[in-house]
Every structure is written in C-alpha cells, then in structure tokens.
C-alpha cells in the first residue's frame, strides 16, 4: 500500500526534470523524515506528525516548481507596475478612440442607430479583449525570457519618476481629460449629421444651446490645462470649477425637464422610451454636477489645512 509520504513525493516528482528526480527524491524524503521524527519526539503520533509535516510543506506542485526554479505566477512584481500602466493607458485612451472611430465609420457608411450601437459594443468587447490578451502575452514573454526589457524602456530608472506637485495632474491624466472632452464635442456634433436619420438631440437646440454647451466644454478643456499648471489648489479653482459645472448642469436639467433635450422625432423621443431617458438624464446630470463641485471643494479644503491631497491619476497623496 502506498503511504501518504510516497503519494506526496511521487506527486512532486512528476513536475521536476527527470535528471533531478533521484536527488530531489532523497532530499525530500530525508526532510520529511526529520520533520516527522521531531514531531513524534514532542509527543505527536506518527500519522498526525506526517499529516502536519505535509501540510507545512504545502502543495506538492508548488514545491516542485520551487525545486525546478520555475515561476509559479503569470506575471511577477518586476513588470506588474509597467503592465498596469500600459493597460490603463490602452483602456482609458486608445480603446475609447477606436470605439468612437469605428462607430462613426459605421454611421457614415449608412448604418442605422441599432447597427451603430451594435458596432460600438462589439468593438468595445472585441478590441478590449484583444488588447488585454496580447498586451499580457507580451509581458509574460518578457517575464519568462528576460529579453528586451531595456530596449523597451521596461528597466526602471530614477529619471523615470514623474514630477509631482500638490493638486497637479500628471501628463497622462491631462491627455485623458482632454481626449474625453474632444470626444464629447465630436459626439454632440456627429449625432446631428451621421448617427441616425433623425438626430438624437433636439435640432432646435442648435439655435443656441448646443453651441453654448460646446463653448462650455472648450472652457472645461482650458480649465483642465490651467489647473495642470498650478502648484497648489486655491479657492479660485473651486469657484471656477463650480461655475463650469453649473453652467453645464443647470441648462441640461432644464432642457430635459422641459422636453427640449431629446429630439421628439428621434429614437429617444418615442413615448415608451422618452420618460425613462429624460429621468435618467436629469438624475445623472444632478449627481455628476453635485459630486464634481463637492469633490473639488473637499480637495481644496484639505489642501488649505495641509492634509494629504490625492494626486489625480496616480492614487497617491501628498
């Protein structure tokens, strides 16, 4: 009958190179025997001592990986930080641009709103999965081979450290903010001419409100650039942020509440869809506006008190 120790050793030896098995067999059995004898000497019965010893050694497959010098993880800590930064950049900057570009191409090609939405969702899933898979695969290859790290800039140096200042946006965060503002402006303009036969938003808004919102978004971009260059947060930052948030939020809520936001002849003007779309628009706008104002005021107050303030886009506090 095969003993518990035999079963453990045989399981571990399956995963080590054949030329190492004899040495590891002797070493492992000797180590187990010593540990079992030590427990028996302290009063434990033999079976209990064996079980406790094997529990201490842990999973035999993991033990075999350690003997063989294999990495038992997909991506180790040395490259994980770089992988995370690359993935964040791809999913917050590259993926949205690809999705919007392909959706616009579908609309220009004569697709209806359902086809455009379907294309956007399909692109989001397909491109997102491929980005995650192939990026991770490249990093796993670098992890296993150790090649190409310095050439690709994956070997960290002190000169790579960003220059932080309290309340200051790092470069990547500034780019993301500006790209999203640009995409919102593009979506507002393109929905009038390309997405559907009937625009989603009320065409009457082009007499004033839609150009007005574009101006507000341009000012928001200027605000983002301005605050990225400020060394500290001030009350002026809070006031300007609140003015811009209310300048966009109040008209949006008023337009939605008075049925002037969605095109009555468009997809979201359908009697079955319109109340739900309008209610969602009002709630989301109010929540986003209040949160934006309160969050900026909180950051400024903490900065004035000398408390740590999170650096946008880093998760760090200074």
Short overview:
The chain is mostly helical.
Q: Give the SSE string.
A: HHHHHHHHHHEE
What order do the strands of the largest sheet run in, or round the barrel if closed? 1-2
Quantity of strands, as a count:
2
Mean pLDDT comes to: 77
Can you give a write-up of this model?
With 318 residues, the protein is an all-alpha fold. It folds into three domains: 65 residues, no CATH class; 89 residues, no CATH class; 151 residues. It is 68% helix and 1% strand. The protein is built from ten helices and two strands. A two-stranded antiparallel ribbon has the order 1-2. It is elongated, with a radius of gyration of 30 Å. The C terminus is likely disordered.
Strands, helices and their partners?
Elements: H1 4-13, H2 18-41, H3 46-57, H4 60-68, H5 77-108, H6 113-145, H7 171-193, H8 209-228, H9 235-257, H10 274-304, E1 310-311, E2 316-317
Descriptors for this entry?
3 domains, 318 residues, 2 strands, 10 helices
